[in-house]
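Entry for adenosine-5'-triphosphate complex. Fields follow.
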Amino acid sequence: MTDASLTPATTATGTRSHTRDIGLKARYAAERRFRAYGLAAVALGLFFLFLLLGSVIAQGYTAFWQTSIQLDIEFDEEVIDPDGNRDSDRMVLLTANYPLLAQRALHEKLGVDPDDRAARRDANSLLSQGVRTQLRDIVVSDPSIIGTTRTVWVLAHGDIDSAAKGQFDLTVEESRRRVNDRQLGYMQTLEEAGVMEGRFNTGLFTFGASSRPETAGMGVAIIGSFYMMAIVLVLALPIGVAASIYLEEFAPKNRLTDIIEVNINNLAAVPSIVYGLLGLAVFINFAGLPRSAAVVGGLVLTLMTLPTIIIATRAALKAVPPSIRAAALGVGASKMQMVFHHVLPLAAPGILTGTIIGLATALGETAPLLLIGMVAFVADYPATPFDPSTALPVQIYMWSGQAERAFVERTSGAIIILLLFLAVMNITAIILRRRFERRW
Amino acid sequence: RDQVSVAGSSTVLPYATIVAENFGETFPDFPTPIVESGGSSGGLKEFCRGVGTEFIDIANASRAIRDSEVASCAEAGVTEIQEIRIGYDGIVFASDINGPDFALEPIHMYQALAAQIVVDGELVDNPNETWADVNPDFPDWEIAAYIPGEKHGTREVFEEKVLLVGCEAAGDLQARMDAGMDEDTAEENCYAVRKDGKSVDIDGDYTETLARIDANKEGMGVFGLAFYENNTDKLKVATMSGVTPTTESIAAGEYPVSRPLFFYVKKAHLGVIPGLKEYVEFFISDAMTGPDSPLAEYGLVAAPDEEREATRASFAAGETL
Amino acid sequence: MSATTIIAIVLVIGAVGYLAGAARARMVVGGETAKLHSRPGYYGSFILIWATLPALLLLVAWSSFAPVLIDNQVRDTIPESVRAEQSATQQDLSINIVEAIAEGLRLLDERELQQATAGFVLLRPLLADKGVALAGNGEDWMIASAQQLNALRDTNIIWKSIAVIGLSIVGFTAGLLQIRAQLRARNRVEGVIHAGLVLASTVAILTTVGIVLSMISETGRFFSSVPPQEFFFGTVWDPRFANAEDPDAAGQFGLIPLLAGTLYIAFVAMLVAVPIGLFAAIYMAEYASSRFRSIAKPLLEVLAGIPTIVYGFFALVTVGPFLRDLSGQIAGIATGEVSSFISATSVLTAGLVMGIMLVPFVSSLSDDIISAVPRSMRDGSLGLGATRSETVKRVILPAALPGVVGALLMTASRAIGETMIVVMAAGVAARLSINPFEPMTTVTVKIVSQLTGDLEFTSPQTLVAFALGLTLFFITLALNVYALYIVRKYREQYE
Amino acid sequence: MKVDTQQGFADGTATAVAGSNEFPVKMDGKNVNVFYGDKQAIFDVNLEIRERQVTALIGPSGCGKSTYLRCLNRMNDTIESCRVTGLITMDGEDIYDPSIDVVELRARVGMVFQKPNPFPKSIFENVSYGPRIHGLARSKADLEALVEQSLRGAGLWDEVKDRLQEPGTGLSGGQQQRLCIARAIAVSPEVILMDEPCSALDPIATAIVEELIDELRQNYTIAIVTHSMQQAARVSQRTAMFHLGELVEVDDTETMFTNPSEKRTQDYITGRFG
Amino acid sequence: MKVDTQQGFADGTATAVAGSNEFPVKMDGKNVNVFYGDKQAIFDVNLEIRERQVTALIGPSGCGKSTYLRCLNRMNDTIESCRVTGLITMDGEDIYDPSIDVVELRARVGMVFQKPNPFPKSIFENVSYGPRIHGLARSKADLEALVEQSLRGAGLWDEVKDRLQEPGTGLSGGQQQRLCIARAIAVSPEVILMDEPCSALDPIATAIVEELIDELRQNYTIAIVTHSMQQAARVSQRTAMFHLGELVEVDDTETMFTNPSEKRTQDYITGRFG
Ligand SMILES: Nc1ncnc2c1ncn2[C@@H]1O[C@H](COP(=O)(O)OP(=O)(O)OP(=O)(O)O)[C@@H](O)[C@H]1O
Ligand SMILES: Nc1ncnc2c1ncn2[C@@H]1O[C@H](COP(=O)(O)OP(=O)(O)OP(=O)(O)O)[C@@H](O)[C@H]1O
Ligand SMILES: [Mg+2]
Ligand SMILES: [Mg+2]
């Protein structure tokens, strides 16, 4: 021990007191600035979020209402089954001229002169062409209805829907509008009679793809996305966590693991469309899985999500303090037990965060699906993940390219639905994270 | 596989989906066909992968199949391909509804958009800044044209039917050839588009072009006729060579800028995939592609009667490429 | 018996095996489990693995090979006459019809079956009634083939069930016989888990191999028509227009402008995302109350989940015009002449919007990493009279640096791979420029547009997408190698 | 077990000062209560720390010594659930007063912790950290000199002088703790709080540190938590005895160890309870 | 500073055994060298740990005590850069032999670390973890009894019996370390390695633990690293003195402290070098 140790104290003696200048004012200013930057950053992030959400919701909330018309439809046997052989030939009920039933009912309601062809055309085009399937489904499910009159809400045409929501600029001259003045008059008549109103658009959730906005829905896409997310979750989470555990806890630190590590980081950077090429080559052309199927989409998205999950999981595993590992090993736990009993639970919040981010990215991804045939028009519900289906972002992407005005709001409506999906995932994650999160 | 599988051009996609949807409703026994988007190139590529249920049946295309593609198809065993022409797609120029009318000639577009034009006998980088520079009748708007990106088939039509024609009309093609270029080079040079930001390529679809015009009220965009007809309250269409684009004027051949749309069917699949034959027949029936059909209503320019008749006959006869 | 039933049975055997193994282990030592090498549960798992793993592997192998064998046998039933006139691909199609018929035949009852065997013409309406659509090209011989196919399938299923379930039982017994007190059951079970972990981590390698393989042949074709030096060092991207001096070339495929655009836009995006994200993370980890954090963090994460196409529209209709008009105003104030120096589509717009999207990638990951820095580090610094911000800047961030760098790398990767935002916000014009107010484009945009365009798919114009993809792949690979090196060099472990 | 208090005094008394009244009060706690959430850890403690003296806080594990010590430089502020009531003053000023600056306070009241917590940086940066943020060194040479002095002060210089740029976390436990002491004295605080600073040190290092503490006492006020009654006896002039969050007794160390007035103190220092 | 070894012996000799030859060798190290990367931390050490004895490892900070101790249950395996050469046997078996199951070894050779490292779980789970994975308790009641017994053994039972379900990390430093001791003895290992187990404990808890160590000696073999020569003298029967990675001397504790044969040992225990 030398006496040199005392010099700091002695040199400081004279000035040492709370008058010592430690630049407090500037440092506090810096502190406040720093804190303000932080708060500003969070606020900015949230501001952008709300700006985005606000604009989406403002544009899309109307999509949840669909203009419908209440008609008293007479299921006239003369129209449906003029020859009366519906029992022997099932095609009769399937191919009957159902739109005529609705048109007649509408003409009656509007008092359209049956001889005025132009007026009839205008009136007919108030109705969606979807009435055919709507009425057909009613009749096929209960043929005894033939001959009776029922009150049915039928969908209005997409243009009428847009007009009713005020999305057409009515100041432009009539010939430039999708809806002419006579039709506007009809609409007013129906509205005043209380038989035309915006009703909750359940079809948006249940219908499959359609070229007509009023009968287009996210049903197939929701199922497809659901299948894909389930596949991604079931495959990517365990594989990703297992790979991370191996790399972080078991793998010897050598060239090979370095290569794997670089590889994984790189896979996270590979543009998503390249995964589409991969999926096409491997899953469709090599493994022979069907095109347009959710299973292929799920596999492709799994591969795409894996790096994200692995990177986040490894970071989370790394953050578990070594003393916990030593403690577990010290009481004679095997490495496997150490990992599964102690390290993994402590890393769970981080893993969850990574998984959610990965899943969210996968949920919103379009480009790779383009190459495996999922950016497609699919009208029928997929029964299994092996049947053709689409996905939520694909539906958004496809609708966003449609010409009809009514698709504009539906695109935003679809985005809202996608965000709801996302919100559900996030809330689940928060709940799970709450349960796992421990500070030490 | 029990449903028809279609892939290809995004221009044909809306028509194909209308047909598919109606097909599904009209033939309840057959599942609704799957129609993929992905570009003519992507569609034909899938189409040419081979014959068998794991491959698609129909490729939609907004251009005719190329010889090299046919060859590549044949290599994979896709030898019998039936070509079906479904109608025409009109290409229109439109600007914001509140702007002035444009009476365009190809030469105006050429002078506004070409990378290089001939000024005083010299080939120089395009000096025109505003539409008024091109034609004093036009408004004093800074030139901002939203044209289809090079990936689009529409671009080619635009180049050949507008820029090249304009180039010739201006005498610039000749001037270039006089300057020592051979004809091909001169033509390519004619329709090379300026890259100084006055002309913006759009690789997305027409909604994007519309959004750009919404954002820049002094912009001029290229649209498909169908898209324009759905947005007549927002867009004002320009005449080309004095003709207003309508289905009628295009069908009559008066409006110059249009292109045919196609789809290609694997003959080998016809008897194998349930509903494929029916789908094709349904597609080319007058009920779908005739002048009063839903497709025409949507904006497809129906082919003349005799052409449709010929198409049907050729399909029924099983003619292949 | 369907595959799922077989799997279920095997799993049941496995479950029984688990119980049996544990019970047997206890029995061997007469209840004194302390004498066992491992806990009884491990013996149970040992049997579980023996009973299920080989059987399921067999099932997978069987299920992938048997259809090929069956297919061959069914092909043998194709009449000579047909075989003579049909090409191999046509036979494939015929087999397809046979399979459809076979499916349909299963739906028929005895009487109908009699009817059906009569001929295809009769069969078709019969099946149509059952909702099975058949194509028109069927022939009579196919019905026999279809019956043969059904028969083969039935036998196959029987044998498959017997073999798989048998193997499961054999495994069960074999496992049970091995149980001794000294059996290192835990080590064995952990060995299997370890193998599983190794297998999982090879997925990453396989993916890489798959990606390279799926692009390499097309890239080769591209380079056979376009010389590599023209692609890698070309400064003009204009694939449809040949260089005026060289009319033979298919076009100009200069990578440089795309690469420059990619890096430029990613750089601007990181310039936005890193400060916002990092500051947000710091605020949430160090200053915010846990309540605030628990609300703000998931909200910010929503930003990451919004599909990029939405951001694209946001850029197109909101941010782009806003910046353009703003620049007009500024120019107006500065020079008196209102001319926007920022285009509506520009590097700045794309970078800005992409940056917003990337904020949660930076913030969430960094927040977790920063929170993981041990408390004693904070105490040490605060105890010396450091302010919180000094503690963060000088102690916590350096300690968390490797993790944060990892998070940033991941973010940068996303920026480089992003497509939709760039398409809409920066345009598709491939230009070489250093002005951030003008449009540029990126490699990914061109990959997508060349792939999904209307150009000829055999032409270099389309094939270039593969070359671009592969190039991007190797560039990011090089970047990652470098990043790993940097992280290694500066890694400092705490505790 | 019998604890030999005599032996400790052989050293302790050598530096102890006769009357303690001549030392003014530096820090004073009045009716201090500390709560962790609902749980009270300190009950109504009144304890003064005298200037230029070493005050030792002793007591069984969990009795609140660390907690009380952490109140003195408001390190408890950093624990969200922790709440302090009562009055704690330094030179007569309420240190919990809103006008008091906690950073300045902590710069004046330094701290060495129970677990060594070097920063994951180089040894040099560990020590220079404090002077640097407070701007105590005018030049690089100044800083280097200051680092050397501090490391010498902590008896670590000879061991690390050749590897100042290596990470502080690579040192052994004892070396790490001495590094932390060096780090604390580098900012020359008025008061130094030490929470079992020697619990990870070997006797030789402990002796060095104890000697150092004794020297520091010339200029600084020191409060030290220790488990070793020998150590308390050796280095401190006043000793406070805690038990179950209460202050049992506080007195001159000599009195305390020879003639405690409380039964509990007596029992504790003779090892009779715990 | 003068260290009073006499005092320590008052306790130590009470339990010490006359001749140490009657104790068979439990663990034996022959020519042990340990490297951290290129840096050698242990040089050619030959040290045997005798059955049912307490062997103390002493020496100045950084001399390699912890490193040697960690070789004995192969905890060093977990440090990537660490390499061990030479032969270490337990009951005559080479513990570095590939056929040896390292998990089994660690179950037989328990460890208590320098820094308390409870799991971030409840107190009960902390203690019951070992017995659970080794299947040492047949029933829940068994387990509870075992936990209680272990906690009592570590002198912690009375303090935590009402809050067994609270997290172990919420305890004070000393309590945490005692929890770790309880956790280690809960699996009843053959050998217990303790790395400064008492450095965070107060004298009362230390006395309890020392008493415990003395009791454990009846059935277990113990190696303990300590900085306190009094402690070494009190609890150990054999003492090994390390310096700069070398084993300076090993002998019966009594001989070592009264009549060391090496000058360095003499100097160290009288506090003359470090
Ligand atoms: N962060 C905390 N949250 C809740 N309780 C705490 C916290 N820190 C300490 N305690 C409790 O407060 C009491 C006093 O703890 P403190 O650390 O002050 O004891 P100590 O006298 O320093 O003990 P030791 O000598 O073991 O360090 C203990 O009962 C402890 O469990
Ligand atoms: N993980 C490690 N990597 C590199 N060097 C290490 C590591 N652990 C210890 N050392 C070095 O090995 C030497 C011996 O360290 P060890 O921890 O065994 O000392 P010790 O005798 O236990 O000291 P203390 O009493 O301070 O705990 C020291 O010089 C130390 O710096
Ligand atoms: Mg304490
Ligand atoms: Mg040590």
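NOTE: Residues D 65-66, 114, 195; E 172-173 surround magnesium ion (ligand 3) (CB under 6 Å).
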